[in-house]
Amino acid sequence: MMLQQTGILAYILPELNRLEGLKQNKYHHLDAFEHTLEVIRNSESGCIARWAALLHDIGKAGTISFQSDGTPRFIGHERLSSKLAHSILMRYQIAKPQRQIIQRVIAGHMRFKNSGEDGSLMKPETLLRIADQYGAALWQLLDLVHADNLAHAPQYRNPEQVPGLRRRFLDLQNRIPRFCLTGKDLIDTFGIAPGPLLGSLLQAAKEAWYQDPEMGREELLDYIDKQRLQERKTD
C-alpha cells in the first residue's frame, strides 16, 4: 500500500497505520494491517462496504492482550473499532446515515463466529433478534462478515458460512410474519402512558415473539397482560 510505504498513512489514518506488524492468532495468516487490505479486496463496492472493511479491525491495536502461551487476543476489538470509526468518519465528513450503518456493521462483525461452517448452528430466535436489530443493514453486516471470513487463514475461512446465513435469513423473512405489536396497541389496551414502562413491555413482547414468532397481536397482548398480573402479585 503506497500510503503506508511512503509514511503518509501515519498522518491521514494513524489508527490503521498502527495495525502494521500486529500479529494475530492461528485463525489468521496475515498481520492485522495486511488482513485489513485483504478484507477490502474481498468487500463489495460502495461507500459503506469499503469503509466498513477498512475500519473493521482498527480497535485491535488498543485491545491486544496475551494468553498464557503468548497467543494474542483482541477481546472487544469490534466495539472499540466502531467507536474509533465514529471519529474517523466524522473527520472525513461521511454523511450521518452512512456513518451510522458503518459503525453498526463494524460493531457486529463478530456476531456469527459461532454459527458454524454453513451458518446452521445459530438458533432461529437468535437470527430473528439480529434481523430485527439491524433491519436493512443486515445485508451490509453479512457482506462484511463474508469479506472478513475470506481473509482468514485458508483452513479457517468458512466460505459457506455467510451464504448459509443469507439463505436462513431469507427463509425467515419469507416464512415468518412480522412482529405486529406497537406501542399504540399497549396504550389503547392497557392505558399505559408513553414512557419507560411502555418501552420495557414492548421489548418483553418482542422477546416472547423471538421465541415463538407465530404469536399474533392478540396472543402478544395476552402475554403482556399475564406479565403485568404476575408483576403485581410479586410487588
Structure explained in plain terms:
- The chain has 235 residues and is mostly helical.
- The chain folds into two domains: 174 residues, Hypothetical protein af1432, CATH 1.10.3210; 52 residues, no CATH class.
- 61% of the residues lie in helices and 2% in strands.
- The chain contains 14 helices and two strands.
- A two-stranded antiparallel ribbon has the order 1-2.
- Helix 4 runs antiparallel to helix 5, helix 4 packs across helix 10 and helix 8 crosses helix 10.
- The model has no long low-confidence stretch (mean pLDDT 94).
What is this structure's SSE topology?
Layout: H1 2-5, H2 9-12, H3 14-17, H4 32-42, H5 47-55, H6 60-63, E1 65-66, E2 72-73, H7 77-91, H8 96-107, H9 124-134, H10 138-149, H11 161-175, H12 183-190, H13 196-211, H14 217-234
Antiparallel strand pairs: 1-2
Strand order of the largest sheet: 1-2
Q: Per the principal axes of the C-alpha atoms, what is the gross shape? A: elongated
Let me know the number of strands. Answer: 2
Question: Which CATH architecture of the largest domain is right?
Answer: Orthogonal Bundle
Strand % is under 5%
Give the integer mean of the pLDDT values. Answer: 94
Q: Could you tell me the CATH topology label of the largest domain.
A: Hypothetical protein af1432
Number of helices: 14
C-alpha-based Rg, rounded: 21 Å
Reading off the top of the CATH hierarchy, the class of the largest domain is best stated as: Mainly Alpha
Structural classification? mainly alpha
Low-pLDDT stretches: none
The major β-sheet equals: 2 strands, antiparallel
Number of self-contained structural domains = 2
Query: How would you spell out the order of helices and strands?
Result: HHHHHHEEHHHHHHHH
Percent helix: 55-70%
Task: Give the end-to-end Cα distance, rounded to a whole number of Å.
Answer: 64 Å
